[in-house]
Amino acid sequence: MVPDESAPASPTPAAGSPARDLARRVISRQGTPIRIVLGLAITAVGVVFLLVSMTVQTIALITGIGILLVGAAVLLGGAGRNEPDGSRAGSVARIVVRILGVLLVLLGAGMALWPAAGAPLLSLLLTIALVAFALTTAVRAFRPGVDQRITGIIAAVATLAVAAITVFWPVLTLVVFRLGVGAWFVFVGLQLLVRALVRRSPAHHSPADSTPGRRSGMRWLRTIGASIALVLAVALAAGSGSLLGGAPLPLPDAFYTPPAQVPSTPGTMIRSEPLTVGVPEGAKAWRILYTTTNPDGTPAVSSGTVLAPADPGPDPLPLLTVAHGTVGVVPGCAPSLSAAPFADGAGTAMADMVTKHGWVAVTSDYIGLGTKGPHPYLVGDAEARNVWDASRAVLASGPVKVSTDTVIWGHSQGGQGSLWTGQIAASYAPEFTVKGVAAFAPAADLYGLAEAIKTETAGKTVSAYIAATWDKVFPDLQVAAHLTPGSAGPVNRIGGLCFNGHDGLAAILRGSQVPNQIFPDAMMSGPFGDELKAQEPTGPFPAPVLIAQGLADPLVKPAIQHGWVQARCAAGVPIDYRTYPGLGHVELVGPDSPLTPQLEQWTLDRWSGAPATPDCDHLPG
């Protein structure tokens, strides 16, 4: 990728100033050793990138040094030589290359001297430097007398692909960034080193070296090297775009569009239809559309799912009321639209309860995920009303008969939702008798959680979902107007991604590229922070409560959960608190988790009326 230096020198150098002539003579004598040193140094920078884990500041420092060295190589490559035909085009090309070389030196020096300037600015400087080098390579490729224009163009395009990688990953620390930029430095350094050694070799000055075969071999070697660099750079850039772009969202079809006249009573079934995708063996399923309420209490419509035994029979079956976890905040993210609608949360345990124990599981999509929003993300009371109205609709006129006795489950966002569903049961859904409430890694202390993870990747992703929805749910807070600088764009992009499958990875990766916490500390200490605190379910709860927490959870911090449980116990709320060493946020509810059989037995015990097992007096550490 180093600009081509194969143009032959003019046999009669043009006259110049004494200082310029002296410089040309010095570079003519010492140029090759200097090129060797530069090639080794630039290659070393690339190797450090590829092999050493570094902080943003260290990356900026090393990158700046590398760009400065590349700029020096560019300036050295054209020093002391005239274009072979003395053409005006050649002179213009030389001037352009010198200007770009100086720009590279200045950009590199700026990054090296001010590594604490902030990742977005540093990434911008690096992108400009890479584009400048690509222009340098392209200009040199079209310089009079150069016989490897195709190679130069390939190298320029490869450098632009690396520049695209720096745009995709502006925080600088991700592995993809390090691979792309590190490999680029290695290729630039090795090409400079090889050319310098070839120039120094006696064979290079012998008549044999001028044979057509020798020249052709060198040209092919350079072209192959540039082509390999292009393929690798484009692959990384395309892979980055694919990872960050997510998957096309499924579009809600006509089923999710309510009729012109919708009943005003919450919990009224509008329609249902069989669901065949992702249904566990031994079960049958439906998706449902029903009435509920917006966060402000106005009428709304939500969708959901019903999972029942394949042969439910005529009698009412035990009811499992389920609040699902985070799947996103836009209509295409509804679980009922997913290829795996029953995989969320404790999906294995839910399937067992249906197929082995004859229960019916009813899950709300929540408003805004399949139907018109806004989605009340982590707004406890609103989520709970959506959950209750799904069960009420099924109870009144669902595709299968269910009992009025129920156990409530929920994971993560749904864990908070399940606690709220239990908390408002008596006032909102008195027709049901709650036998138990189980929450797995619930976002119970939302304020404490937001504070604890505000600078972490997962925390930034969750914060983006809150910002994308609360600006509509709580317009008086004016959330969008008070985000940290540079957060608005990432919030919009993350808000359009679902939090499952390919989209889930894209959402997390985009969260990793948000340079700052999304909510400034001033917001956390004001009305916005008060609203976060208001989403904490504090009880009382109408039935025994099970809280399950993985001790390796990177999202819902165990210490935050432990503090919430302690506070509830101190307030006289009995809690069955179970912790699971080594399990993360998702692993806690996985099929192989020890929670799975325990949860099933706990649910059956609540149904049979077995004594509860609170352990406030012996909380696990």
UniProtKB/TrEMBL annotation:
<feature type="compositionally biased region" description="Low complexity">
    <location>
        <begin position="1"/>
        <end position="19"/>
    </location>
</feature>
<dbReference type="Pfam" id="PF03583">
    <property type="entry name" value="LIP"/>
</dbReference>
<dbReference type="InterPro" id="IPR029058">
    <property type="entry name" value="AB_hydrolase_fold"/>
</dbReference>
<feature type="region of interest" description="Disordered">
    <location>
        <begin position="1"/>
        <end position="20"/>
    </location>
</feature>
<keyword id="KW-0812">Transmembrane</keyword>
<feature type="transmembrane region" description="Helical">
    <location>
        <begin position="120"/>
        <end position="138"/>
    </location>
</feature>
<keyword id="KW-1133">Transmembrane helix</keyword>
<dbReference type="InterPro" id="IPR005152">
    <property type="entry name" value="Lipase_secreted"/>
</dbReference>
<keyword id="KW-0472">Membrane</keyword>
<feature type="transmembrane region" description="Helical">
    <location>
        <begin position="92"/>
        <end position="114"/>
    </location>
</feature>
<protein>
    <recommendedName>
        <fullName>Lipase</fullName>
    </recommendedName>
</protein>
<feature type="transmembrane region" description="Helical">
    <location>
        <begin position="34"/>
        <end position="53"/>
    </location>
</feature>
<feature type="transmembrane region" description="Helical">
    <location>
        <begin position="150"/>
        <end position="169"/>
    </location>
</feature>
<feature type="transmembrane region" description="Helical">
    <location>
        <begin position="59"/>
        <end position="80"/>
    </location>
</feature>
<feature type="transmembrane region" description="Helical">
    <location>
        <begin position="219"/>
        <end position="239"/>
    </location>
</feature>
<feature type="transmembrane region" description="Helical">
    <location>
        <begin position="175"/>
        <end position="198"/>
    </location>
</feature>
